[in-house]
Amino acid sequence: MRYTPIILFAIAFTVRADDKDELKKLEGDWEIVAVEAGGQVIPAGKGVPEKLVIKDGKLTGFGPEVKLGTDSTKMPKWLNMTFARDGKDTTINAIFELTGDKLKISMPLAPKKGSGVAFENKRPEGFDTKDKPEMVIKAKRAK
Q1: How far, in Å, are 71, 83, 98, 121, 140 from residue 26 at the CA level?
Q2: Over 70: is that where the pLDDT of 7 sits?
Q3: pLDDT band for position 3 (50/70/90)?
Q4: β-pairing, 51-55 with 40-43?
Q5: Can you tell me the distance from the alpha carbon of 98 to that of 104, in angstroms, rounded to the nearest whole number?
């Protein structure tokens, strides 16, 4: 029992270090290949941005600047995407997968304005959007 706080601190420190490493792996310029929403694929350049930049734990190029946080202990890996809205921080519960030079980010899709449907912000469980209010960004590392 005497060592429990030390062990818990060591585990917490390791997770934080791993998550910083995870964010480092995501850094760079990314070319958007496609965006999929509700099972429909939208090719890059057809109404979606063509590029994302991740630097210093922030994502730009897809709306407002977004602060990123990861939890690599979860599977699929969690990505918390926080941005300022109406003077306060809003966090979107997302997941991501990095395989070589390919990145996928899946996030809940906000309902259309005026639809009367509440935004649940439910973290996706995978990267299939068919019949789900979710969006997946597919990107490759820019050369």
Answers
A1: 13, 18, 8, 23, 11
A2: no
A3: very low
A4: unpaired
A5: 7
CB 52 within 8 A of CB 63: no
* Closest to 26 measured CA to CA, from 63, 60, 74: 60
In the block, tokens 């818990």 appear at 8
Contact present, 142 and 33 (Cβ < 8 Å): no
Tally of domains within the chain: 1
Retrieve residue 63's tokens. Answer: 């709306």
The residue behind tokens 């005497």 is: 2
Residue 66's domain comprises 4-141
pTM: 0.82
Six-digit token string for 66: 């977004």
List the one residue out of 127, 89, 87 whose CA is nearest residue 107.
127
The overall average pLDDT reported for the chain is 85
Three-state secondary-structure class, residue 93 = strand
